């Protein structure tokens, strides 16, 4: 039985990815800050697929809490086969000369430093796997810098750089590392970015069929199930109605 750890499993991509691996017969470690959601997801996966689940509630920005929580993993499983670095967010959408420094801190500390804390702590356990795999959830925002995306785009460009760095530095250990870069996907992402403004969040997806969290989960599952000698380095996926962040076909336009 393979063991899979997903950060940001309380919502969106992370939740769908955890469910996909659970349905596929894996053992799951699910992480996030919202304990009640972790409990609900754990219960539903145990009930539907008899999945062994460990729930870890911590904030990836808190290095000490992250390290302490992840110390439980070796007691749950002797090796870790898959790490999905998914926890992340965009906070705000403002020009660089008026953006909130608190928003910048939150994005850098979560999307970049949090990913590093989690990965560093889990690498020894991943090395125990016969086929270790790291998925980093990047974004089209890391490929194409758009107006007011500044710091969010920079963190996702950094995720691309770190994915390549992992493939290089971990080459000798047989790691597969994929940077999965989605475009517009309807999750809680925009609600978080616009700090609860649901009208503004809804407008992001108006007039087009966005990606669903389940689409992303299916792609992760596909990559994972390729023969172990095949490593997809990068995967960029958009809704069919989105060529890139600048060309989007919306009904009525
Ligand atoms: P959601 O807001 O639905 O999910 C984000 C997840 O990240 C939640 O489970 C949240 O859990 C977790 N998270 C956020 N901050 C922290 C933190 N400090 N510590 C621990 N966990 C945290 O958004 P998505 O599913 O869309 O986003 C998942 C990833 O995909 C992100 O990295 C995002 O940047 C990326 N992405 C999203 C796209 C989209 O259009 N939706 C497109 C491209 C990339 P909790 O609040 O419980 O801590
Ligand atoms: C999320 C996609 O285009 O809103 O990373 O930045 S986008």
Please tag this protein with its features.
16% strand; 9 strands; Rossmann fold; seven-stranded parallel beta sheet; alpha/beta; binds NADPH dihydro-nicotinamide-adenine-dinucleotide phosphate; two-stranded antiparallel ribbon; 253 residues; 9 helices; binds 2-hydroxyethylsulfonic acid
Description:
By secondary structure, the protein is an alpha/beta fold. It is 43% helix and 16% strand. It has one domain: NAD(P)-binding Rossmann-like Domain (Rossmann fold), CATH 3.40.50.720. The protein has nine helices and nine strands. Strands 3-2-1-4-5-6-7 form a seven-stranded parallel beta sheet, with helices on both faces. It has a two-stranded antiparallel ribbon with strand order 8-9. The N and C termini lie far apart (49 Å). 41% of the residues are buried. Bound molecules: NADPH dihydro-nicotinamide-adenine-dinucleotide phosphate and 2-hydroxyethylsulfonic acid (8X3). The site of 2-hydroxyethylsulfonic acid has 6 residues, from loops.
Write the CATH homologous superfamily: NAD(P)-binding Rossmann-like Domain
Q: What order do the helices and strands follow?
A: EHEHEHHEHEHEHHHEEE
Low-confidence parts lasting 5 or more residues at pLDDT below 50?
A: none
As laid out across the biggest beta sheet, the strand order is 3-2-1-4-5-6-7
Quick one: biggest sheet? 7 strands, parallel
């Amino acid at each position: 039985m393979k063991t899979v750890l997903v950060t940001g499993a309380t919502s969106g991509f992370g939740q769908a990815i955890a469910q996909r691996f659970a349905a596929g017969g894996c053992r799951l470690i699910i992480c996030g800050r919202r304990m009640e959601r972790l409990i609900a997801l754990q219960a539903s996966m145990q009930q539907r697929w008899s999945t062994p689940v460990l729930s870890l509630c911590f904030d990836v920005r808190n290095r000490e809490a992250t390290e302490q929580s992840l110390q439980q993993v070796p007691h749950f499983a002797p090796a870790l086969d898959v790490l999905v670095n998914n926890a992340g967010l965009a906070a705000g959408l403002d020009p660089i000369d008026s953006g909130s420094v608190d928003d910048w801190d939150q994005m850098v500390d979560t999307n970049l430093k949090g990913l590093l804390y989690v990965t560093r702590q889990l690498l020894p356990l991943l090395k125990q796997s016969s086929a270790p795999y790291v998925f980093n959830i990047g974004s089209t925002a890391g490929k194409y810098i758009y107006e007011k995306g500044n710091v969010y785009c920079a963190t996702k460009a950094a995720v691309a750089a770190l994915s390549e760095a992992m493939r290089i530095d971990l080459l000798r250990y047989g790691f597969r590392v994929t940077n999965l870069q989605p475009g517009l996907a309807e999750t809680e992402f925009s609600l978080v970015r616009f700090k609860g403004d649901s009208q503004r969040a809804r407008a992001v997806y108006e007039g087009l069929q966005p990606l669903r969290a389940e689409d992303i989960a299916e792609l992760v599952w596909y990559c994972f199930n390729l023969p172990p000698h095949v490593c997809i380095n990068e995967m960029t996926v958009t809704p069919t109605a989105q060529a890139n962040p600048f060309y989007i076909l919306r009904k009525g336009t």
